[in-house]
Design brief:
This protein has helices at 26-33, 49-61, 108-123, 138-146, 175-184; strands at 4-5, 11-12, 16-19, 67-72, 78-87, 92-99, 128-134, 150-161, 164-174. The chain is an alpha+beta fold and 188 residues long. Strands 1-2-3-4-5-6-7-9-8 form a 9-stranded mixed β-sheet, with helices on both faces. Helix 1 crosses helix 2. The protein starts with a strand and ends with a helix. Pfam families: Acetyltransf_3. One of its GO terms (molecular function) is acyltransferase activity, transferring groups other than amino-acyl groups. Residues 16-167 form the N-acetyltransferase domain.
């Protein structure tokens, strides 16, 4: 797959644009943030469009670096978001993603996450990229496996999710892992 980086905090893959989230994305974002199944392992359901606008302004617009909306190239439809939180001191980052349920099963989450790995390792010189996910969310763990990350373990009682203490799985990739995948041609 030919992938390229764009300017202004924008990334591009074969089928997707990853670009900053704007208030104009509120209606499309509300479609998936109001779906209990989509946000089951992430955050409380958005009950109205104002909840989504508040989230966009106070999270995505306030500090946009490393936060992208996931947009289908073919239609221009905003279908999810992806993130990379960078620890510059340790040359590492945590990634995450959310794709609306209507778009599950099309490989969009692995495609977006792989592009973020490319940015982190090839462009930023990071040494380690990891992801945490609620262990009950098997589909998210499967995405991490698909992009070549390796399971490192379980963090028991690691986080609070909607009033419940949950275990988090940890997957990670090092720059050496990434380079090996690139040489072998196994990257997404």
């Amino acid at each position: 797959m030919e992938e390229k980086l764009l300017l202004n905090n924008c990334l591009e893959t074969e089928r997707l644009y990853l670009r900053p989230v704007t208030i104009e994305d509120a209606k499309d974002m509300y479609e998936y943030t109001s779906d209990p199944e989509t946000v089951k392992y992430m955050f409380e359901v958005h009950h109205n469009l104002d909840d989504t606008k508040h989230e966009i302004l106070n999270y995505f617009v306030k500090e946009p670096i490393g936060k992208w909306g996931v947009v289908l190239k073919k239609t221009g439809k905003f279908i999810g978001n992806a993130e990379m939180h960078i620890d510059t001191h340790n040359l590492s980052a945590e990634i995450g993603y959310a794709i609306g349920r209507k778009f599950w099963g099309n490989g969009y989450a692995p495609e977006a996450a792989t592009q973020i790995l490319e940015l982190g390792f090839a462009e930023m010189g990071l040494k380690r990229i990891y992801a945490l996910y609620c262990v009950d969310n098997k589909k998210s763990g499967r995405v991490l496996e698909k992009i070549g990350m390796q399971k490192e373990g379980i963090l028991r009682n690691n986080s609070q999710l909607k009033g419940k203490t949950v275990d988090d799985g940890v997957y990670a990739m090092t720059d050496e892992d990434w380079q090996k995948l690139q040489r072998m041609g196994e990257a997404f």
